[in-house]
Design goal:
alpha+beta, BirA Bifunctional Protein, domain 2, SH3 type barrels, seven-stranded mixed β-sheet, 12 strands
Length: 239
């Protein structure tokens, strides 16, 4: 078991609207962390593109509030660091599962979504929200979901899960601070789902498909369409 990383605070709640919303309130009060915000239950959890994120008791809902002291474009790279950290953590909870990262910022286990990540930033602060399906998962989602319990492993307590996540993230965050995106990119690609296979990408103005060839130095998805390589900054990916 990992230990809580040095230099990181923790604020835990029994119930809250969302951990990212609490991070915004704390940042507005000048509290820039680094601090993890966790809750037993969210009443208004959010995912990417404003979607609702279910947060029943027994799952992990947490947000890291930090001030990275790098340009906002570079701070977006920390979504990949968070995905790697979450993948490393859940791989320890369900060692028999095939745990992979899915572009841009999900974690899959046996091909189903186990972790979602949401980044928000403003005025120099960054909130990295992480939701992990420990005991429960939503049954009716466009991309199939799962949980640690559904994988046949005992669902860890959320405090134990958060400690593992925080410890793994602290390691990758220090690598990013010291060496930039390159080590994060390499580690992410080593865990990437669908790499080298044909995928479908839903864009804001339509869909396209091609072979997933990796991510570039900014984190954009590299898709080969009819022989040409295209960099895609934002999309929903389906296998």
């Amino acid at each position: 078991m990992s230990t809580w990383p040095s230099g990181y605070g923790l604020k835990d709640f029994e119930e809250i609207d969302s951990t990212n919303a609490q991070a915004r309130r704390m940042a507005a009060d000048g509290q820039l962390g680094p601090v993890w915000i966790s809750t037993a239950r969210q009443t208004a959890g959010r995912g990417r593109r404003g979607r609702a994120w279910e947060s029943p008791t027994g799952n992990l809902a947490a947000t890291l509030l930090i001030a990275p002291e790098k340009p906002a474009a570079e701070c977006a790279q920390l979504s990949f660091a968070a995905a790697i950290a979450a993948a490393d953590a859940v791989a320890g909870f369900a060692p028999g599962a095939d745990v992979r990262v899915k572009w841009p910022n999900d974690v899959l286990a046996n091909g189903k979504k186990l972790v979602g990540i949401l980044l928000e930033s403003q005025n120099g602060w960054l909130a990295i929200g992480v939701g992990v399906n420990l005991a429960h998962f939503p049954p009716d989602t466009e991309f199939p979901a799962t949980s640690v319990a559904a994988l046949g492993a005992p669902a860890p307590a959320r405090d134990a899960a958060l400690t593992e996540l925080a410890a793994h993230f602290a390691k990758w965050y220090e690598a990013w601070r010291a060496r930039g995106f390159a080590p994060i990119r390499d580690a992410w690609l080593a865990r990437a789902a669908g790499l080298g296979t044909r995928i479908r990408a839903r864009l804001s103005n339509g869909e396209t498909s091609g072979v997933f060839e990796g991510i570039d130095e900014t984190g954009a998805l590299l898709l080969r369409e009819n022989g040409a390589l295209r960099a895609i900054a934002a999309a929903e990916v389906f296998f």
